[in-house]
Amino acid sequence: MTETEERREPYETPELHPLPGSVLARPPGPERRVAPMPRVAGQDVKELAGRFGSPLCVIDERVLRAAYQRLESAFRAGWKDTVIAASIKTNYLSAVVAILRSMGAWGEAVSGFEYRLCRDLGIPGDQIIFNGPWKSDQDLELACREGALVNLDSDDELARVIELARAWRREVRVGLRVSLELNDAPWDKFGFSLENDHALEAARVIARESYLVLEGLHVHVGTYIPDAGLYGRACEALIALGLRLERELELEIRHLDLGGGYASRNTLRHTLLPGEAIAATAEEYATAITLPLKRAAVQFRRPPRLFIEPGRILVDEAASMIATVRAVKRVSGQQKAALLDCGVHLLPTAFWYEHEIRPVEDRGQAVENYRVVGPLCMQIDVLRESVLLPALRAGDLLVIRDAGAYNFSQSMQFIHMRPNYLLAHDGGVDVIRAAEEDAQVRAAERLPSHLINAETRGSILAGGQ
Ligand SMILES: Cc1ncc(COP(=O)(O)O)c(C=O)c1O
Q1: pLDDT digits (tens, 9 = 90+) for 28-60
Q2: Is the pLDDT confidence value at 22 over 50?
């Protein structure tokens, strides 16, 4: 036996795994990615920046409505009784929530703040799904009292709801958040594990309580899940558990809630293909979820309602950030860097997305490789490590696309104030959140009296002294 033969590994038949999503879709070519975008949401970008300043966030009402419509049609084609409970934390600008509500959305809230926002925008308690790993006593009580659908997350929370219902001597509707070991990094911080029977145990406790009604099962498999197949498996797991609960505990499972996580067309950092090429479409997600439901429907006492809690797939595409190049320089390795007035304080999703950045002016086909950084005094304030753009100079406007999800709600006032947020609609544009001013940021502060002297003045004293 030669040395090479000795070292040779035994032959193994290769395994074939389908790639997630529609990989056959043609990824957008580089020419489209640098094509100038002089208009956003039907508006002239230069004019908007001139009127409302830069940076500036523009939300396109038409795109938002179209995304909702597409998702709703896709799911209702497969399962008529589908209700969209929009994830409020994904973008809790009131105008955004109001638009989604006007389309018929329920709200999915994870805090008292979001719950009250829904209520203020006319969403009744019994059309709010109240999720989250911790709900304050006050918020939990309000939601239970108003008939919201409270998805329980832990035994401790279950005990608190039992206490409330017993004290009130009236029925409280609950759902059970279930965690499934389906993906590589399961979201097991949340809810009751299916695999270790924690979910079953919790259901037994609820079934014994005369004032608690277990209405349904909830799962949220993770966020930005491009593979529709995972939802199919999650749905099958909820169906199996639901049927078992109906059989063994004589419950009626009235709904299954498949949560959110449906990918937008944004591209995750460090992935080979752009988001558009790997992410399943609304129709593919809908088919993956509704097919198992259709097959199992007759086995339920009554066909359950389907809830989904989409976030990014609804709102990402509707928003663009307009930013201005403030400086151009060469950094290490001779790479060019463009410094913008918009940083990660306004666009935190730049930490995990490679947002598409487009020039506003037509500068021809020649491109250079830029690192695009923000104005914060932090090395990590980087919007793109490397992106091809036409030669830039200070003063140039850029459009950063698909910025609607999690950017406003996770934005922070750090060093610079938050800018204007606009809604573009058929009638023109409206400011839906005015640029912050110093006094607003300081309004909640109080300067102790021993620190006030003859020189302290202005908004430093905004706290009412
Ligand atoms: C319970 C729940 N539902 C819905 C969502 C919305 O997720 P996405 O924006 O990825 O669709 C989230 C976000 O993490 C969530 O935790």
Answers
A1: 555 556 799 999 999 999 999 999 999 999 999
A2: no
Whether 56 is covered by a domain: the verdict is no
Domain count, the chain: 2
Same domain (yes/no): 310, 383: no
Q: Distance between CA atoms of 368 and 33, rounded to whole angstroms? A: 13
Residue range of the domain that includes 369: 30-44+317-439
Atom of ligand 1 minimally distant from the CA of 177: 1
309 lines ligand 1 (CB under 6 A): yes
> Cα dist. 373→30, 97, 304, 316, 350 in Å?
21, 31, 49, 21, 10
Last residue within a domain, chosen from 283, 315, 347: 315
* Residue at token pair 């911790």: 134
Q: Which residues contact 298 (CB under 8 A, 6 or more apart)?
A: none
Cα 308 to ligand 1 centre (Å): 10
**How far is it, in rounded angstroms, from Cα 383 to Cα 405?**
16
CATH of residue 35: 2.40.37.10
Q: What is the rounded distance in angstroms from the CA atom of residue 104 to the CA atom of residue 110?
A: 20
Short-list 91, 163, 83, CA closest to 127: 83
Residue 460 and residue 444 in contact, taking contact as beta carbons nearer than 8 Å: no
List, in order, residues 6 or more apart from 52 with CB less than 8 Å away. Answer: 419, 420, 422, 429, 431
77, two tokens: 């084609």
Q: Is residue 326 part of a domain?
A: yes
> Hey, how many other C-beta atoms are within 10 angstroms of the C-beta on 339?
19
pTM of the model: 0.92
Q: How many residues appear in the chain? A: 465
Q: Extract the tokens encoding 371.
A: 């690192």
- The residue whose C-alpha atom lies closest to atom 9 belonging to ligand 1 is 311
- The answer to whether residue 270 is domain-embedded is yes
Q: Indicate whether 17 pLDDT > 80.
A: no
pLDDT tens for residues 168-184? Answer: 999 999 999 999 999 88
